[in-house]
Amino acid sequence: EQADALAQAGEPAVTQDGRRIEVAANVAGLDDTEQGIACGADGVGLLRSEFLYLDRSDAPSLDEQAAAYTAMAKALGPQRPLVIRTLDVGGDKPLAYLRQPAEENPFLGLRGIRLCLDQPQLLATQLQAILLAAGEGNAPLHIMFPMISSLEELRQARAILETERRAINPAPEVKIGIMIEVPSAVLLADKFAEEVDFFSIGTNDLTQYVLAMDRGNPKLSSQIDALHPAVLRMIAMTVQAAHARGKWVGLCGNLASDVEALPLLIGLELDELSASVPVIPSLKKQIRALSYGACRQLAQQALNAATVADVRALLRSK
Ligand code: PEP
Ligand code: MG
């Protein structure tokens, strides 16, 4: 059955009633990207760019970064988008060479875009390297900012990007998006949707921040569940705000790799799911067997559930 799913993996994932879902890969480098392509990924939905920065004593050079992004953009080719998330460290992933002071609450501290805006040269170099990966025959480039919690952060990051973009002649075309993983971004999704091309929902952090539960705390691991009805309502709000403004929404947290959650995610009207590479063939295969109409009914019921247990019971009853 696995072999069967793999054989068809290159085909698009379309439900029985004609809704196409992009199934993309979460990757951390060229090897994963190549494996993703072999597993039928429609693109890279989340490149965790941290791999270039971790486990070393100084920041990666412009050339080194540009070479890495270009290799991935070439491997994907012109039909498969490459969504590059800008550096998402700080908090629990400190980098020695950034010399950031220790924080009492790292997950509420200088992480993700906040750290990059505190060290704008670091972000500028990364954006320049990403822009150098634009080119004919390469993947359409998408730049995604992590941990955005206010419009000001987006606008500041975007201003740095524009400066780098205009310095190149001709200025490369890129799509711009944000991770939706902080509750304030959900509540302001209508405003954000007016200023970006796409959203990708990071359910790992969104669940942590909605439930106020540390995602790494083993004592809470049985309770921190992205299928919590409060998280589902946030996903629905985000999708509605984006679609009303003609923007697409993906989901790149671990929930996208949860086969049991798949009909619900389709029913919540996500346009793209970005999952870990090995599950891509089976996700695509399952999507082809689903009815979008039935999934939407399921999602309506889930949005009315009171507890995670009710949501899980609902999913198992189908
Ligand atoms: C997320 O928060 O859901 C996400 C995809 O990002 P990360 O797991 O890298 O924080
Ligand atoms: Mg995250």
UniProtKB/TrEMBL annotation:
Subcellular location: Cytoplasm
Coiled-coil zones: none
Family: Belongs to the PEP-utilizing enzyme family.
UniProt-recorded name of the protein: phosphoenolpyruvate--protein phosphotransferase
Species in which this protein is naturally found: Herbaspirillum lusitanum
